[in-house]
Structures are given as C-alpha cells and as structure tokens.
Amino acid sequence: MSELPVISASQLGKIYSDGRREVTVLNQLDLMVSAGEWLAIVGVSGAGKSTLLNLLGGLDVPSAGEVLVAGRSLSALSEDERSRWRNRQLGFVFQMHHLLPEFSALESVAMPARIGGANKRDAEEKAQRLLAILGMGERLGHRPAELSGGERQRVAIARALVNEPACVLMDEPTGNLDPQTAEQVLVAMDALRERQTAFVVVTHDPGIATRMDRQLSLTDGRLEVL
Fold this sequence. Notes:
Layout: E1 7-17, E2 22-33, E3 38-42, H1 49-56, E4 64-69, E5 72-73, H2 79-89, E6 90-93, H3 105-115, H4 120-133, H5 149-161, E7 167-171, H6 179-190, E8 198-202, H7 206-209, E9 214-219, E10 222-225
Parallel strand pairs: 3-8, 3-9, 6-7, 7-8
Antiparallel strand pairs: 1-2, 1-4, 4-5, 9-10
C-alpha cells in the first residue's frame, strides 16, 4: 500500500443547529485511508456514519477540520473544482442504486467517464470490462426495471469504479437486499480485490465488516478500533 493516504481527515467536526440548540455529530475526528485499503465503519443508527461519509466525499462541509482527497484539501477548492475532483478521485455507492430508468446498465456505468471527458467508445469499453468482472456481462443492454436488486447494485458499484477512483465510498450498499442477494453483491466485490482502489463502507452488516481489512466504530463522534 502507498504511504500517502488517499483520504485524510484531521480534527473533523460537524455540528447541526435547529435554532434552539446545537448537536455535535462528529468531534475532532481523525482518519487516514491508504491506497487499496478496505475499511468498514460501523455504529448505531444516528451515530453520524452517513454524515462522515458525506464529509469525506465533499458532499457536505465540515464545521471544523479538514479533509484531503488524493492530497488536495476539499475546503480549498471551489464548488466546481470539488465536483471535478470528486468525479476523478471518488466513487459513490448508496443504499439505493440511483440508476436512471431510461439508461441501460452499460450506459449507466459509462456515464461518469463521459462526464469526465472520455469519448463514448473508451467509456463503454471500460464499463463493459467492469460489468463483466462483476458478473453482469450478459446484462449490458438491460435497464433498471429489467434487473434484480442485486444486479442494480452491481451496476452501481461498476459505475463508481469506472473512472478508476482513488477511493469508493459506500453507504449501506446491501441495506435494501435480502441476505442471499447481499451475499452475491459481496462476492462480486471480492472480485475487485486486486485493484488499488480503496473502499470505505458504512454498514450495519457484519457480513460486510468482516470482509474488510480494518473495522472502526463511530461512537460519540469519534472513531474507535474494533
């Protein structure tokens, strides 16, 4: 693994206010994720796991501290620069697959590459290779309504990987799947082990957590080693 972390968070804090009181969700949190590392973050509902993931991905702004992605401080970037950096360096997989109904699996996976400037042929060749690795090589032309829940999530994972990001952030990626389908998604993820992409996975699922290289628990706004 590279000594330079792909994600580094230092003294990260997040406070929400409803006008009457303030709620501290994250408190002086530190985290480093190495290239190729698979990391699970677990914790009770409401602990701030999704908030942390949004901060690491530049989808939200911290109240304190700093996040570096591939060596660049997200807070030092403009909104447009941050969007472009996210497209190049990060992939996202959420509990819901968020696939657009009018696009095929191949088109959905190729889309971030097209947005990043790749031509149609190159983007679709990369998408096809990823879908094949994830066991979706025979489903390229199928739209979301023609795919099972597990197949849709595998498309979402391929989409997150198409730009060869430094890190993929996953928020409960099997949360809406039955145990058998979730296991199929996990087996498909295992096929990606040889890549140098890091994975940070927020999960309640011990089946995911035990597959990771490292497990951390988010408690009282800070991370603890399990």
